[in-house]
Amino acid sequence: PVQMARQQAETKEAARRGKEDARSQREIEKTVERRDAGYQDLDRALAGVKKWDPSKGEYATVKAQGGGSVYGRSGGIRGGSRGGYVERDYGYAYDTQILTDSSRKDWAYRSNKALAYLKDAITAVRSLGGIERKAMKLGLEPIQTQEELESFYKELNEQYEYVNERKNRKER
Questions:
Q1: CB-based contact 91:65 (threshold 8 Å)
Q2: What element of type H or E holds 68?
Q3: Beta strand 69-74 with 61-66: parallel, antiparallel or unpaired?
Q4: C-alpha to C-alpha distances, 159 to 46, 94, 110, 145, nearest whole angstrom
Q5: CB of 88 within 8 A of CB of 73?
Q6: Measured CA angle at 46 (ends 163, 165), to 5 deg
Q7: Which residue, of 99, 113, 128, 170, has the fewest CB within 10 Å?
Q8: For residues 144 and 128, is the Cβ–Cβ distance under 8 A?
Q9: 114 within 8 A of 50, measured Cβ to Cβ
Q10: Quick one: which H or E segment has residue 91?
Q11: What pLDDT was estimated at residue 92?
Q12: Which backbone phi and psi does 145 adopt, to 5 degrees?
């Protein structure tokens, strides 16, 4: 009876360890799936940022006539029959670097799309930090270290601020 009780206890202990191992294995698999999905979300967001980067768009600018004016003597154009002075423009066309109204709208649209994708990338990096910490607790090797993720998080936030500050710009 003692040996039988010991065998039953060992069997229960093995079953408990088996359940824990199975639970642990499911948790590892779930973490790996979440991590893969997180990196896919990050890749998708970064591709969107690249696609909608406002600096990559084509924009029209306002052209102006410039240069110097020369006053010349004219017979009878201004000042009656005695003649007068007429201003003639000998300038040239130049680019003012000021965006046209439609180009400003395009810039703002592309900026807003890029900002949305940057926000998605920031969210993905933040969640990957937690997933990587959990993966390390489960004994998995991290794909990115916490320091790398933190650095990337700061870089994305700086990029977000930069685009956000320039989204309503009027000049190229």
A1: yes
A2: none
A3: unpaired
A4: 12, 32, 14, 21
A5: no
A6: 5
A7: 170
A8: yes
A9: no
A10: none
A11: 62
A12: -75, 165
Residue 128: exposed, middle, or buried by beta-carbon count in 10 A (0-12, 13-18, 19+)? buried
Token pair in block for residue 41 = 């979300």
Q: Which token pair is 170?
A: 């009027």
Evaluated on CA atoms 140, 146, 147, 150, the torsion sign reads positive
* 23 residue type, one letter: R
Interval 152-165: pLDDT, tens: 999 999 999 999 99
Task: Please enumerate in sequence order all residues whose Cβ is within 8 A of that of 104, keeping only pairs 6 or more positions apart, or say none.
Answer: 168, 169, 170
pLDDT for residue 71 is more than 90: no
Tokens of residue 133, six digits: 């910490």
Percentage of the chain modeled with pLDDT above 90 = 51
Instruction: Measure the N-to-C terminal CA separation of the chain; round to a whole number of Å.
Output: 90
Maximum CA extent, the chain: 138
As given in the structure block, the two tokens for residue 115 are 């900002």
**CA 83 – CA 60 distance, rounded (Å):** 43
